[in-house]
Design a protein that fits this description.
The N and C termini lie far apart (78 Å). The protein has 502 residues and is an alpha/beta fold. Strand 14 and strand 15 form a beta hairpin. The strands form two sheets. Strands 1, 2, 3, 4, 5, 6, 7, 8, 9, 10 and 11 form an eleven-stranded mixed sheet that branches. The chain has 14 helices and 15 strands. It has two domains: 357 residues, 3-Layer(aba) Sandwich (Alkaline Phosphatase, subunit A), CATH 3.40.720; 62 residues, 2-Layer Sandwich (Arylsulfatase, C-terminal domain), CATH 3.30.1120.10.
């Protein structure tokens, strides 16, 4: 009996750890590739035959695309700041601290920190960080070629390295931004061990302006021009927000916009995207040659979109689809391939989604919804509507068929039937035939505002004028625009009035 008991105990001693490990699958690595200012419609495999993105196209074919992914508005004209704050905290900007929400997130647990503390991840940053050094310190301990700012001349900028929570002095990056960051990502992947999972956050600065891709990438589009946006206008027809109308993004081309100027800028924008695609391809190739290939989830997204001539606008300080909508592609073990969803998603939903991938407990109080139920086929959606609040002067709600815009500072409303008018070109707000839809969407707006903790008024007693007097003397030139762009679009101006060079 004693021998049998000892044998049984020995078998149990050997078997139990293996049984336990089978129930606790290995945590996957996370490779997070983050573009800057990339519209949702700028990937070939997503229906744009005019842009060359072979590596992103392959990612689409090998992964799962969320086709209606949004930045959830902004507290600032620097929309990328709000977008990144929401991603890193999993909270909507309306639930971040009212004062300085860009760099003060109260006691929010950031995504990299929860992965590190709860999942033993090696969280590593490369590229752009636009939310202040204190929040960087709370998120990452290590990184390379970190750019602490919003924008830069892609071919002439400075970076810092992060070691054990300390940033090094600035140094010249030594190359074009997308290549510099891709080089660092390749080095990290090639040197990373297999004894600890990693969260590699690679935040590119492209295709944010300055729109100065390497010459061959802009010339490839000058020689084979993409069409202008279907909703191109010479200028926006009303004053949606004073700071947005005359902000630095809108000053990158004179008013009225001409088709020739927008065509050139679109070529330059596409050139940045194709060059970025090539660098993404290098990173993916390094991953596929590494021992991490079968256990890494790839996330590709952007902080928001960009108007690029749509509605007479160039920037992202508006709630039109082109400016708030951006790509989202996931690839990796257990993720369906060659599939897509029209479900509404927000960028900050990636917080909960990545926590679920990493098998770590999500903090309480976040606004992020995991997308795993959609990926697993358990649900078709996690949001019934998309609510886009921009500062105190723009609101929109979208139920997939209809979209309502409200501009409180001028007491103006727009209604679009997105199912038939996806480019938001035919306003039906004052058409008596659609007053039923108008009232229904107003009710959805109020429900979204209540759910989203939005207390800004939708109507003011003394509205600003709707009309806009466009004045090219108000165009802002920043320090990051290279000489050829100043000569081409600013008449050779050499007196920047915005920004400090890094």
């Amino acid at each position: 009996m004693n021998k049998k008991l000892l044998l049984t105990l020995a078998v149990l001693f050997i078997w139990v750890p293996f049984a336990f490990s089978a129930e606790q699958p290995e945590r996957p690595n996370i490779l997070f590739l983050f573009a800057d200012d990339q519209r949702a419609d700028t990937i070939g495999a997503h229906g744009n035959p005019h842009v060359q993105t072979p590596n992103l196209d392959r990612l689409v074919s090998e992964g799962f695309s969320f086709r209606r992914n949004y930045c959830a508005g902004s507290f600032s004209g620097a929309v990328c700041v709000a977008s990144r704050a929401m991603l890193m905290t999993g909270k909507h900007w309306l639930n971040l601290p009212e004062k300085k929400p860009a760099t003060n997130w109260d006691d929010a647990t950031t995504l990299p920190s929860v992965l590190t503390s709860e999942g033993n991840y090696n969280s590593f940053i490369i590229g752009k960080w636009h939310n202040g050094s204190a929040m960087l310190d709370r998120s990452f301990a290590n990184g390379r070629s970190v750019y602490m700012g919003g924008m830069a001349n892609h071919a002439d900028f400075q970076v810092q390295d992060l070691t054990d929570g300390t940033l090094s002095p600035k140094r010249d990056a030594g190359g074009f931004s997308s290549k510099v960051f891709a080089d660092e990502a390749v080095d990290f992947i090639q040197s990373a061990g297999t004894d600890q999972p990693f969260f590699l956050y690679v935040a590119f600065m492209a295709p944010h302006d300055p729109r100065n891709p390497p010459r061959k990438y802009r010339e490839m589009y000058y020689n084979n021009r993409p069409p202008l946006p279907e909703n191109f206008l010479p200028q926006h027809p009303f004053n949606h927000a004073e700071h947005a109308i005359f902000g630095r993004d809108e000053g990158l081309a004179p008013w009225p916009r001409t088709k020739d100027v927008i065509s050139d800028q679109l070529c330059e924008y596409y050139g940045l995207i194709t060059h970025l695609d090539q660098q993404v391809g290098r990173v993916l190739k390094a991953l596929e040659k590494s021992p991490h290939a079968k256990n890494t989830i790839v996330v590709y997204t952007a902080d928001h979109g960009l108007a690029m001539g749509s509605h007479g606008l160039l920037g992202k300080q508006n709630v039109y689809e082109q400016s708030m909508r951006c790509p989202l592609i996931l690839r990796g073990p257990s993720i369906p391939q060659q599939q897509s969803s029209e479900a509404f998603t927000y960028i900050h939903d990636l917080y909960a989604t990545i926590c679920d991938f990493a098998q770590v407990k999500k903090p309480t109080g976040i606004d992020s919804e995991s997308l795993l139920p959609i990926l697993d086929g358990e649900s078709e959606s996690v949001h019934e509507t998309v609510f886009l609040p921009y500062k105190d002067n723009q609101r929109s709600v979208n139920d997939g068929q209809w979209k309502l815009h409200i501009y409180p500072q001028i007491n103006h409303r727009l209604l679009f039937h997105l199912a038939e008018d996806p480019h938001e070109m035919k306003d039906l707000a004052t058409d008596p035939a659609y007053q039923g839809e108008m009232e229904r969407m107003e009710q959805l707006m109020e429900a979204a505002r209540q759910n989203g903790n939005d207390h800004y008024p939708l109507h003011v007693e003394n509205p600003a004028p709707k009309e806009v007097e466009y004045d090219n003397s108000k165009r802002v030139l920043d320090v990051w625009q290279p000489k050829w762009i100043r000569e081409k679009y600013f008449g050779g101006r050499s007196n920047p009035d915005h920004g400090k060079k890094s």
